[in-house]
Protein: FGGY carbohydrate kinase domain-containing protein
Organism: Hordeum vulgare subsp. vulgare
Amino acid sequence: MSHGGVFLGVDVGTGSARAGVFDEKGKLLGSASSPIQIWKEKDCIEQSSTDIWLAVCTAVKSACSLANVAAEDVAGLGFAATCSLVAVDADGSPVSVSWSADARRNIIVWMDHRAVDQADRINARNSPVLQYCGGGVSPEMQAPKLLWVKENLQESWSMVCRWMDLSDWLAYRATGDDTRSLCTTVCKWTYLGHAHMDQWKESDSCDMQACGWDDVFWEEIGLGDLVEGNRAKIGRSVAFPGHPLGSGLTPTSAKELGLLPGTPVGTSLIDAHAGGVGVMESVPEAESKDDLSDEEAICRRMVLVCGTSTCHMAVSKNKLFIPGVWGPFWSAMIPEYWLTEGGQSATGALLDYIVENHAAAPLLANHAASQSVSIFELLNKILLSMSHEQNIPFLSALSQDMHVLPDFHGNRSPVADPKSKGVICGLTLDTSEKHLALLYLATIQSIAYGTRHIVEHCNAHGHKIDTLLACGGLAKNSLYIQEHADIIGCPIILPRENESVLLGASVLGAVAAKKFSGIHDAMKSMNAAGKVVHPSSDPRVKKYHDAKYQIFRSLYEQQLSHRSIMMQALQ
């Protein structure tokens, strides 16, 4: 069925569902957002797939109306979402994953840490599949969460007919095709995507029988029942991201979304990976390296997808095993490339926490509102005036007495220690807005030191990363980006379009509509660079950050030593 010339990307984040309409050059024509419900009780964080689908429909209709686009103009769509876990029964109705037994609550949200004990037990078995996720599963991945449900909610466990990653569920809800993505299954379900490496190329686009499951792994960890029935519950067939699903939108879902039945839908991506697809080719002419082939050049870049948490995406043509960093994942982002995925579990969430829990927060919020600027813009302004008042050589030096370890939600990479805790060193009785600004600066720097640690660690294990690209909410914060450039010593390229994750999702729709031959081809057309932020050329800035980085690294070492002293004391 031939449709018009725009592509729709949908992204379900932690707090909202968003939709964006793009043309074939990747220009955003209109976007809209609709909030989603979330339930939090201690380590348990849950959502509802019914609520999410309603929010998706609302956002899609609003985005199309804002972009002044009719249903017949939409040539294809793609979904991206957090890697939350959805439970549905044989009819596709929700099954509760909650202690509350509330049937609406059928999603375990990505950041839910109820399954720490299950993750530890799975990792203790040292199964060979674990070497493809940095040596061990995180409690944020799906196997530990599935084991938790089986051990704690037997009734739900027996009712579930399909366990799905949220982005796969959205595509299934839209098309009725439950083919899974190589992105979700490989990154979050221990699926070995490279089982397809010698048989299939992206250009063969088809759904492939799922031959990459390690049945022994599922049986060993006590989830052998998921292997039954040709693994129907976790995925019988898989496809490259962007592969067209089923016969496109079903009549029912088309009506709900305000689109035409049969509109092509591409196989999904996790939201961070969609961010990677939305920016990784956004390189201005001036920054492109003439002596490198396209294939080599893309392997020198790392994308920072900076939201509630930050994901660090890099690709390579050969597989690189990096302790404490997830991957290597074959075809999990760009087909036929291996993906390395680092991450920090709380970045945007940490800055919000630091600001909201400071005594000066209400005052700061009032001041920001009266000046019609965001809280972060106001903090950046306060820091600038402090650096002039105190007559210091450069703004970063304001934080010389304050050191932060940003592991407030554990350390995902490269230490891979979910038990790691946050540290703030250098507190006083000061409760002023200026004190909050210093704490905010030191926290931003600590997040950047964490990224530097990840980049250095990846490069020590075979990567050659020399350029960063940043997208997501925090990439709009100029101080955040400048501190990262100074601390890591690389230029940081910002994309032309703010909505990189939505753009990445729309690329899936463009590929499904056969507008491009594949994901990488579509990226070259639809990605575009905006501003480039260069590191400071002042040698004093480098010297300052090198010193603070040493302190940053020592804070974790001290924590380990404190942990062992206390363990001995309690024996």
